[in-house]
């Protein structure tokens, strides 16, 4: 983490090496030059071709694949909160915090990434498009 990056709430994104804040919030994943597979976080090797994957920024928008409410969380984390999987247009599937109660979500909803204050840190979350200006 550099001096200008806010602290990131531990959880789904375990390292600030996995995110970029400027010029806009983006996930740092990986892509395969041979088969086009994308993954987050960037694995050392492509799961299809077993050749080295190159770091690449992933899309800021995706589609909610599935989700669940979490009622017992780590200290300092407000509950309940929602986690789920977001499918990105380039094929990566990302496990993530999802904004809002699970009852208000539906599979295949369009979502976009954003930063949400969480106590004395921030949480990277995905929110249904149209709910917030991100
Ligand atoms: Zn590949």
From TrEMBL:
It holds the Pfam family OB_ChsH2_C. It comes from the Bacteria. Residues 58-115 form the ChsH2 C-terminal OB-fold domain. PANTHER family: BLR3430 PROTEIN. This is ChsH2 C-terminal OB-fold domain-containing protein. It comes from Mycolicibacterium brisbanense. The lineage of its organism: Bacteria, Bacillati, Actinomycetota, Actinomycetes, Mycobacteriales.
């Amino acid at each position: 983490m550099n001096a200008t990056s806010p602290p990131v709430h531990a959880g789904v994104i375990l390292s600030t090496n996995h995110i970029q804040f400027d010029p806009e919030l983006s996930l740092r994943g990986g892509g395969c030059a041979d088969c086009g597979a994308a993954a987050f976080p960037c694995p050392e090797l492509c799961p299809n071709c077993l050749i080295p994957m190159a770091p690449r920024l992933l899309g800021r928008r995706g589609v909610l694949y599935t989700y669940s409410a979490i009622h017992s969380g780590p200290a300092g984390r407000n509950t309940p909160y929602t986690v789920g999987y977001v499918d990105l247009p380039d094929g990566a599937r990302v496990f993530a915090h999802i904004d809002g109660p699970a009852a208000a979500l539906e599979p295949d909803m369009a979502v976009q990434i954003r930063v949400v204050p969480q106590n004395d840190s921030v949480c990277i979350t995905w929110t249904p498009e149209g709910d917030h200006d991100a």
